[in-house]
Amino acid sequence: MMNQNSDSDAGTPWPAFTPARPVTVVGAGVMGTMVAWACANAGLWTRLYEIDAGRAALARRQIEQWLGCPAEKLEICNGLRAAVSGAQLVFENVPENLALKSDVLGRIHAVAGPETYIGSNTSSLRCAALARASGRPERFFNMNFCDPRASSLTELMQCAETAPQTIRFAKAWGRHLGMVVLHVRKDQKGYSHNRLWRVIKKEVLRQIDQSIATPEDIDRGWMLSFESDIGPCGIMDAVGLSTILGVEESYFRDSGDEADRPPQILVQMVADGKLGVQSGEGFYTYPDPAYRKPGFLQPDAAGGSQGAPSG
């Protein structure tokens, strides 16, 4: 029997992106909250689905703090069917675990309208595997956000089954959010720019793990070299160290190469609850990290430490 949501039905329309229809964000973790903020900030009718009531309430407070006003177009939902009803896009943001994401995507497919597009916010999982789990591979895409409050960069990935209409929709959505959408035209683990970032991230973590350099001095070097207001350790704190660990674990599971094993310093920090901005402590302490303080890049600052962990 044909699934009622199957794209095998030639009569199913391919809607273009429109600001008039809701977008549903699934998962109110660090990245889900940021994506929901980006949607609300762009004036979209935004639904945020989260089963943990405490986390959902925290996400609303955080989004309204970032907006600087009540989020009038943000709706918090605790029922998936209601959350996706009438949505033009359901964008999944659960942790970086293939089995978990596959389960959630299957649940979304079961209750979403046949014309609804489904996307996944993933850093390292390949599009094809998630597309199959979504039940509608032609209408599925991967998109990787950085921190949309601070960076307009996002990467869009397709797989062999992704329809051109889906790519057009995803690009239009991203551009409406004010993002520069980099199109990764073949399915590979880790996108394009994100793979370059991983090389940097791995080396940074290695140097910290082996007590070669402090997070502060690594970030100073980066900030001075590239005239940036944040360095790799600050970026990892913003993304969330549990997310960083999940990505590294994914690469290690796939390769089995000891060179891909997450460094012990990262494993220990996550185990200790030092998750970055979300927990108030990571490589820096928040809400007033050292790299934002006057004098951080001055000549007499190098070699100092905020008390960040060492290997």
In the CATH classification, which architecture of the largest domain applies?
A: 3-Layer(aba) Sandwich
Structural domain tally: 2
Number of helices: 11
Encode the helix/strand succession as letters: EHEHEHEHEHEEHEHHHHH
Strand content: 5-15%
- The quaternary organization reads as single chain
Measured distance between first and last alpha carbons = 57 Å
The named CATH superfamily of the largest domain: NAD(P)-binding Rossmann-like Domain
Strand neighbour order, sheet with most strands: 3-2-1-4-5-6-7-8
Poorly predicted parts: 1-8, 307-311
> Structural class, judged by helices and strands?
alpha/beta
Could you explain the architecture of this structure?
With 311 residues, the protein is α/β, with parallel strands linked by helices. The chain folds into two domains: 23-184, Rossmann fold, CATH 3.40.50.720; 194-292, N-(1-d-carboxylethyl)-l-norvaline Dehydrogenase, domain 2. It is 41% helix and 12% strand. It has helices at 30-41, 53-67, 80-84, 98-111, 127-134, 164-176, 193-209, 215-226, 232-239, 241-255, 264-271; strands at 23-26, 46-49, 74-77, 89-92, 117-120, 140-145, 153-157, 180-184. Helix 4 (98-111) links the parallel strand 4 and strand 5 (117-120). Helix 1 (30-41) crosses helix 2 and helix 4 (98-111) runs parallel beside helix 5 (127-134). The N and C termini lie far apart (57 Å).
